Amino acid sequence: MFLLSHRKVSDKDLESACIIWDFLTQKDDLNKADLIFVLCSHDIRIAKYACDLYKNGYANHILFSGGLNFFTKNVFSDSEADSFAQFAKKEGIPIKDIIVENESTNTGENIHFTKSLLKKMNITVSSLIAIQKPSMTLRVKLALDKQWPENRFIISAPEYSLLDAPHQYMNLYMIINEIVGDLQRIILYPKLGFQSEIFIPESVEYAFNYLISREYNLHLIR
């Protein structure tokens, strides 16, 4: 089954993956904001983190953004956003403080559809706490810099390492495939106008090419 795809991860594979993971992980100091903006994924820990921020008074509303993609359609029975929202309700977050955008299937759509939804709801925001998996935070930052520059964004994520990233639907082999694909998008997407450009250190580039040579290519753009 695709979700259970795996093979032995060597020590060098893991060392290279950690270099990429650390490069992809960004986290700003937390401050209060108008909205907690959750770019959903396969990892429900992101929803728990958003709820904790809400309960600690960092924002008065949470917006969950995410439909289903090729992977999460095998994880959730409903859209990512609706699944995260259901989790939030069970955590005691009032329904009136939850906003759901459940059509997007990638980071660009998360941003575009969320902006459109807020405009339709006549909600104005100038500051957001944007939350994703740790390894997606750099991509989110670069995409927001390019596609929503008028707002102030705080980038955040739950605290866990590469070795702690796997969960019941995603093992370490799949996580490494995912971060290799995320780095490829950081390299390619500025040319397409999707995100800001960033310098890729030589050590990160070497780790990326090494893992591709080891056929960690399931998440690559062909």
From TrEMBL:
Quote the InterPro entries the UniProt record gives. Cell_Envelope_Assoc, DUF218, Rossmann-like_a/b/a_fold
GO cellular component terms, semicolon-separated: plasma membrane
Q: Which Pfam families match?
A: DUF218
Q: Which residues form the DUF218 domain?
A: 35-181
Which PANTHER family does the protein's record reference? DUF218 DOMAIN-CONTAINING PROTEIN, INNER MEMBRANE PROTEIN, PROBABLE PERMEASE
Q: What is this protein called?
A: YdcF family protein
